[in-house]
Design a protein that fits this description.
The chain has helices spanning 9-12, 23-32, 51-56, 65-91, 113-120, 144-155, 202-213; strands at residues 3-7, 40-44, 61-62, 96-98, 105-106, 109-110, 124-128, 130-133, 138-142, 159-164, 219-224, 242-244. It has 245 residues and is α/β, with parallel strands linked by helices. Strands 4-7-2-1-10-11-12 form a seven-stranded mixed beta sheet, sandwiched between helices. A three-stranded antiparallel beta sheet has the order 3-9-8. A hairpin with a 4-residue loop joins strand 8 and strand 9. The radius of gyration is 17 Å and the shape is globular. The protein binds adenosine-5'-triphosphate (ATP) and Isopentenyl phosphate.
């Protein structure tokens, strides 16, 4: 059973502090991934290794002196975050390969063949949100969520699981409103304030992507990666989270 997992930047980093890696929470969630079986594809977000400097250097946006400087810095920070995650994957005995977006995305070109080949050779492909060259005049940010969508089209997985720092999608931001209600099945409207930190659209964009991903996956989940034991309950009616089936 193929599963694509997105490890949210809000679990693996403290999104309010530049380059703060949350080692303990990442170890906890990675140690639970084995309950999902062997056929995994892993994507991680940028958190405070990506979004803070992206905003500062005007990426996404036009190519100019400032964004040129920021491009390599952000890419280097993302490689650093990927190295932190990779060390934890190594300690959990994963046979994986990290494939940075710069190796397969340039302008309008996307080339995911390495994912398929490594996956078929028994590796867990790992990738992450990063900067990319969008056109001759523009730099972009390719978010982890968009990578999940592209990969879902290629792998048509049974399950796609977004792990974030909230219990699921609520009718409004649960961090700001104590009376926010969890939308387990997404059968009503929700409101989303744009994120002050994220350059890739925050939770509203995530929900749009989840709905699009559902065209290629049997089930799409958003669950709390800070409570990774919930990964064992995916098929249970008692699962706390948002599911699109
Ligand atoms: P990244 O995109 O950096 O990888 P992530 O995948 O963990 O991070 P975020 O984009 O940070 O996800 O989205 C999760 C955040 O969205 C939560 O911390 C929460 O505060 C915020 N949020 C805003 N509105 C809502 C809502 N209606 N329901 C759930 N979360 C919401
Ligand atoms: O955190 C964005 O990926 P996301 C990565 O998955 C950068 O949205 C570099 C900001």
């Amino acid at each position: 059973m193929t599963t694509i997992v997105k490890l949210g930047g809000s679990i693996i980093t403290d999104k309010t502090e530049y380059r703060r890696f949350m080692k303990h929470d990442t170890e906890k969630v990675v140690s639970m991934l084995s309950s999902l079986g062997d056929d995994l594809v892993l994507v991680h977000g940028g958190g405070s290794y990506g979004h803070i400097k992206a905003r500062e250097y005007g990426i996404p946006g036009p190519i100019n002196e400032r964004s040129r400087k920021g491009f390599s810095l952000i890419h280097c920070d993302m490689l650093g975050l990927n190295a932190e995650v990779s060390e934890i994957l190594i300690s959990n005995d994963y046979r994986f390969i990290s494939l940075p977006p710069a190796g397969f995305i340039f302008g309008r070109t996307r080339s995911y063949s390495a994912f398929r080949k490594y996956f078929e050779s028994g590796f867990m492909p790992v990738t992450f949100g990063d900067v990319y060259v969008k056109s001759d005049t523009e730099y972009g940010i390719y978010s982890g969520d968009t990578l999940v969508y592209d990969l879902a089209r290629i792998f048509t997985p049974e399950r796609v699981i977004f792990l974030s720092d909230v219990d699921g999608i609520f009718n409004r931001n649960p961090k700001l409103y104590s009376d926010a209600r969890l939308l387990s099945r997404l059968d009503e409207d929700a409101t989303f304030q744009p994120s002050a930190i994220d350059v890739t659209g925050g939770i509203g964009r995530k929900l749009e992507i989840m709905k699009k991903v559902r065209r290629y996956a049997k089930s799409v989940y958003l669950i709390n990666g800070l409570k990774p034991e919930r990964l064992r309950m995916l098929d249970s009616p008692d699962l706390i989270g948002t599911v699109i089936k």
